[in-house]
Amino acid sequence: MMVTSVAPVNIAVIKYWGKRDEDLILPINDSLSGTLSVDAMCTKTTILASSTLKENIFLLNGKKQSFENPRLLNCLQEIRSRANPGLPQLNWNLSICSENNFPTAAGLASSAAGYACLVHALAALFQIEGDISAIARRGSGSACRSIFGGWVQWCMGSSPTGEDSIARPIAPASHWPEMRVLILVVDDQKKKYSSTTGMQRSVETSKLLEYRATEIVPKKIEAMKEAILMKDFESFARITMEDSNQFHAVCLDTFPPCVYMNDTSHAIVNMVHTYNKFKNSSKVSYAFDAGPNACLYLLDSVVDEIFSVINYVFPPVTSHQADYITGIPITREPISEELKSVFEHNVLDKYGALRYLIHTTIGDGPKTLNSPDDHLLNLNGLPKRSYDD
Amino acid sequence: MMVTSVAPVNIAVIKYWGKRDEDLILPINDSLSGTLSVDAMCTKTTILASSTLKENIFLLNGKKQSFENPRLLNCLQEIRSRANPGLPQLNWNLSICSENNFPTAAGLASSAAGYACLVHALAALFQIEGDISAIARRGSGSACRSIFGGWVQWCMGSSPTGEDSIARPIAPASHWPEMRVLILVVDDQKKKYSSTTGMQRSVETSKLLEYRATEIVPKKIEAMKEAILMKDFESFARITMEDSNQFHAVCLDTFPPCVYMNDTSHAIVNMVHTYNKFKNSSKVSYAFDAGPNACLYLLDSVVDEIFSVINYVFPPVTSHQADYITGIPITREPISEELKSVFEHNVLDKYGALRYLIHTTIGDGPKTLNSPDDHLLNLNGLPKRSYDD
What we know:
The first copy, chain A, is an alpha+beta fold. Chain A is built from 10 helices and 17 strands. The longest helix of chain A is centred in the middle third of the chain and has 21 residues. Chains A and B meet through helix 5, helix 6 and helix 7 of A and helix 5, helix 6 and helix 7 of B. Chains A, B: Keywords: ATP-binding, Cholesterol biosynthesis, Cholesterol metabolism, Lipid biosynthesis, Lipid metabolism, Lyase, Nucleotide-binding, Steroid biosynthesis, Steroid metabolism, Sterol biosynthesis, Sterol metabolism.
C-alpha cells in the first residue's frame, strides 16, 4: 500500500510570528500567503504501509530521521484518530521518504511544504476525508497554508483545542495569473536560530509583538484580502512590504534580538524601493521570512526589467545562467542607462552576494501522483535512488 | 568680546525618536542619556561679537557654513530675546568657529555637542541666566541633554510652545564613577539618511512608534531612573539594550525602512550577548544611534577583558594601537582560552570591521574656557589655525 504526494511551498504576505499554544501550534494572529507552483519548488513524499516492515522509517533528503519527532507523531496520531478503525494499515509500520526539488542549503522554508506533503500523503493512505489543514498545522504552523493552492488565509481561531485554527482559500491561483515570484537566494554563512526558538523568544520578550498581533494584523488581513480580490497590485505590494518589515522589526525588538536579514537583504530592499521610486509606483514588493533570502512578488510585465536591475546591482560571479536562475526562463535584457543612473554606483561589495534566483508563479495545492514511476520507494520500503551525500 | 565653550557628546540609553512639532523640536517621548567626558570627545566653540565685523561668519571644522540655517537662527533669536535689550553686542555681527576633537568622518552624532556648545557660548556672550536647555533643543533635539553632565532626562513636556520641553539632570557624573563607555567605530560606506528625515518618516508611517512612545517609554524612563539611582548595572544594561533594539525596530517598521545598523553592528550585539551569557550576567550593554557605531556601557572592572574579546572577534588590521584606541588607556590582556571557546570561530570576514575605539567615562556639562590661549579665533574674527582639508 503505497502513496506519493507533492506539496507546495508558500510565502506569507502577512506573517505568522508567535504562538499562543506551543504544542497545538496555535498562532497569535491570522496570516496570509501565496502558494507557489510545485513546478519550481515542492516536496515529494512517498509512504509505504506494510505488514512486513520491521520498523518505522523516515528518510528526508536521503538522511534517516528519528521517528520520535513529536511533531511527526502528532500528525500521525491526528490522522489515525480520524481514520476508519477497521483499516488494516492502522496497525502496520510505515516507510516515509521525502525530498525537496530545491537545494535545502538555500535556507528556504521547507518545513511548510514538508509537513503539508506528509499529511496529504497520510490522508490518502488512511482515506481521510475533509479539511486536513489543522492536521498539517500540528507539523509546522505554516504548513496548514500549503494545503491549498492560490491565496490562503490561516485563521488563528479561538478554540483552545485548535479545531478552528485552519487554513481557508481566499482565491485560486488562476485568479491572478499575472502574478510572479522571484526568490533571491542570498549568500550567508551565519548560524541560524530556528523560527520556533525565535518566535518563542519574541512572545516572551517583545513589547511590540502583542500590539502588532491584536491591533495591526487584523486590519492588514482585511486590506490584503481586498487587494488580492481586486487584483490591486499597488496595495498588495505596500502591505506585503510593510508587513515583512514589521515582522523583522518585532524580531529586532526581541531580547536578545533575532536578526534574520543581513546587509545583502537590506540592499535588496533598497534596490526595490529605488526601482519603485523611479517607476513612481510599487511595481515590485519584497517579503523576507526567517532568513536572509528575499521573495519578490511582482507582475509578469516587470520580470525582465527587474532581472536586468538585479544583475546590475548584484553582479553574479558565475557565467552559467543555467545554474544561476531556475524555474521560468527570463529574457536577459540590458539595463537602460536611465535606470542604471538611479542605482548606487558602488556595487563592488555586492559581487556574488546572490547565490541564485528562482522564478515561479502562484500555483495549486498538494496532489497525489498515481503513476508507479512517481514513487520514491520500492515495495520493500527502500528508496529507489541512492543518496550520495 | 570673545567667549569660548566646550560641550560634551551624550549617548541616549532611552532613545528620542519622533517629533510632535518639527519647528520647535518637541519630541513624542521623554529620553534619557549619559553625558560623556569632554576629555575624549567634545565640541569647542569660540564666538567673537564685534562692531567691526562686516558680516556674520560660521566656520565648522574649518568649513564655512551658511548663517541662514534656520536652526542656528532659531537658537540666536531665542538667546537674543532673553538678553538685556541694552547690550551693545546685540547689534553686532558674530564670528563663530566650532570644531570637534574627534573625527567627524566617524559618523558619531556631533550635532548634540555642537548646538549645546553654540548655545552655551552664546549664553555667555549675551549674559543669559537660567536654564538654556530649551534653547539648545531648538538647534538639535538631543543637544538639550548635553547642557548637563552626568545622567540627564529630556522631559518631553506638554506645552505647545515647548517651554516645558527641557533637560533635567538625574544624577551627576560623580554618582557612578565606575561607569565606562567604549565606542566602537564601524567601517561603513553606506550613504546615510539624516535622523531628521528618518524620524519624520517613522512618525508618518510606523504603526509601532506611537505605541512605543505612549505605552512603553514612560515605564522604561522610570525603570531606568531607578536603575541609575540605585547603580543597578544589571537593570541598566537590560533596559539600555532593549531600548536600543526597540528604537531600531521602529526604524525598520518605517516605510521605506530606515536601516542604520549593519552586519558588523549586529555582530557586536551578538558578541555582547555571548559574553554576558558566558558571565551569566549583563556585564556589558550596547546602544546604537542612527548609524552603525556601537556605544558600549560597562563598568571599569570589565573593560580590560571585553577589550580582549573585541580584539579576538574583530581583529584590527592596524598594528598601531595608538591610532586604534583613543581616550583612557586600556591594558591589552590576552583572551583566556575558556572565553575564546564561546565565540564564533569564523572571524575572517570581521578583519578590519572596526575602524577604531574610544574609551571614556561619564562627564560634566559644558564649560567656559577663560584662558586667551583657548580661543579658536583671533581678534579679527579669523581662525588662529589653518584648516588644510
